[in-house]
Specification:
36% helix, 8 helices, Arc Repressor Mutant, subunit A, Rossmann fold
Length: 258
């Protein structure tokens, strides 16, 4: 597999060196630029897979650089800023940036955001997901039946039955999110991973879309949404589905636990 190339654009050599070391340590290729002119040359010559772009780029305006890049290229851009300014974030997103990181940043956050944007831009197939478990088949494919804590999930009918046999009233978005959890029980999933896996959700780093959707799903499947026992929050990372999932295969009636 070809190594992804990241262009780091920052006028601070220490930041460029830090990001190079971190990203190369994750198996990614790195090229550097200290100003707008060098950035445009690198984009033309090396065609990076993603650009990290400092807003305060010395004599250059990072937002204008992002606008100029987006005018001729769809390469993903992550803006980097030394201040947590909502206006800068909004403008950065409006000119075409894909994400936003504030200095000082944690290197793990940089890696997670870079990988998340790369995944979204490349759109890998479900089979490429290394943490996927038993998939919920599409309607009409004779998929297995999933059950947990008295709730029954019928993927072929896109239906989820509550403990009393009535419908849980899940929307399509709710069902997609629940499917992601049931396919990966007891796995810790970051918010970015959930966004990528659910798909079809318009979002930005400024909102809490995935948190709101998890809250809605909890209201429909948890016995006490204020004290969730199925979908647990992993502080600073994301969520994990800790319920015991039983899977009944429709072809032979066999039951297994996940």
């Amino acid at each position: 597999m070809t190594r992804k190339m990241i262009l780091v654009v920052d006028d601070d050599p220490k930041i460029r060196t830090l990001l190079r070391n971190v990203l190369e340590g994750e198996g990614l290729g790195v090229c550097e630029a200290m100003n707008a002119e060098e950035a445009f040359e690198q984009i033309k010559d090396s065609v990076p897979d993603l650009v990290t772009l400092d807003i305060n780029l010395g004599a250059d305006n990072g937002l204008e650089v992002a606008r100029a890049i987006r005018a001729t290229s769809q390469v993903p851009i992550i803006m980097v800023s030394g201040k947590d300014d909502v206006i800068d974030r909004v403008v950065g997103l409006e000119v075409g940036a894909d994400d936003y990181i504030t200095k000082p940043f944690h290197t793990r956050e940089v890696v997670a955001r870079v990988r998340s944007v790369l995944r979204r831009s490349s759109g890998p197939a479900v089979s490429d997901d290394p943490i996927a478990g038993t998939p919920l088949a599409a309607p009409g494919e004779g998929s297995a039946t999933f059950s947990f804590d008295g709730i029954t999930v019928l993927p072929d009918r896109l239906e989820v039955l509550d403990r009393d046999g009535t419908s849980c009233g899940l929307t399509t978005g709710d069902f997609k999110l629940l499917a992601v959890f049931l396919e990966r029980p007891k796995r810790i999933l970051s918010r970015d991973q959930l966004m990528d896996l659910v798909g079809g959700i318009e979002w930005s780093p400024l909102d809490r879309t995935i948190d709101n959707q998890v809250a809605r799903l909890r209201k429909k499947i948890e016995r006490d949404p204020s004290d969730p026992k199925l979908i647990k929050t992993v502080r600073g990372i994301g969520y994990t589905f800790v319920g015991d999932v039983e899977i009944t295969q429709s072809s032979d009636g066999a039951t297994k636990s996940a």
